[in-house]
Structure formats: C-alpha cells, structure tokens
User: What shape does this take?
Amino acid sequence: MTELGREESTKKDDRPASGLVAEIVRILRKRKGYTQDQLGDLIGWTGSAISAVETRAQPVSDEMLVALEPAIGEGLGVFTVARPYILRERFPKRFRDFSILEAEARTIWTYENFLIDGLFQTEEYARALIGGGHPTPDEAKREELVEARRSRRAIFDLEDPPYLELILEESVLRRPFGSYEILRGQLLALVEDSERPNVNVQVLPLGTVRRIM
Assistant: This one.
C-alpha cells in the first residue's frame, strides 16, 4: 500500500462511530421505504446531506442525530445513544482520550498564559481561534471543531458538576482573537461562568510576573 493509501485508510477508519451510524441510517431508511430525498424532507435536510452521511463523505451532525431518532429510530434510542460518541470523534485525535477524562473528572485545575481555556470559550472566540490556525480548515471542518469544543460545556449542566479552578495571566484578558468585540463577549461570558458555585477564576496580574522576574 502506498503512503497516500495508508493516510486515506487511516483517515477513513478514524471515526468508527460515524461509520456505524452511517450504516444504521442506510438500513433503517431502507426499512422505512424512504429515498434519501424523502428522509431529508422529513427531517429538514436535503437528500444530498443524507447521502453524505451514508457514504461518510460528511459526519452526521448532532442536530441530525436528534432529528433521525423520531423519524427512523423505531423507538430503539440508537441515535440518542450515539450522540456522545459522535461528538467525541469530532475532537482531534490527540484530545479524545483527554475528553473522556475531562467528562468524568471531579476536579479540574487549569492555568493559561496565552488564551482562554477551551471549556470557557464562547462560540465566536473558539471560531476565531480555530479559523486562524494553519492550515486553515474549511468552513465545514471549522464548524465541526467549534461544535465539538462547545460540547465540552455539558459538564457545567451536570446535576453534580466538577469543581473548576481556572488561573489566567492578565495578558490573556487583553489579547483579542478575531476582534475586540469577540474578546468583549468572551470576557462577559467568563464573568458569568465565574459566578457559578463550582467555578473559581483567578487572574495573575502582570505586575506579579514582573516582580517574580
């Protein structure tokens, strides 16, 4: 197998949950007697979007999984069960194992000296960061990564959420990504999160850093 072939094979096999869901969608759609266009019309997507999921050209979105459950799920709950696995596959491979630990953690301590931690990022802030990377991801990939990052915030809404300790250098609060308007929205969201009973946000002043040096 050529090097390119190995890369393509690895990329295709990188998302086993997506592959399984693609097969389930195809099987249940045909069992219902729907064409791809008919299923798309039923759940508010195009037939080409259904085709992209079934052929694995595009991973299924969380919104589509929610819509598929009542349409063809037959009360089995398979698409509901699949949601956390699909979301996890949207993370870069190097982060997937950590995402499992984060979701199960009881205490999370984070220190940041360059940007706001991903758990606390607004959608706009995350989009500016991800879109500014190199190589620049296309729009579909960027939105997928933004959705995955935002999905981590589910731990805030747990019945018994973990304790979160976030320490930021003051420079982080002054460094805009995308625009100062995006930074302003991020800071307001950070203040709101800091008011949660399980969250403690501390800022290390620049003057402190100078005295240490």
Summary: The two ends are 55 Å apart (CA to CA).
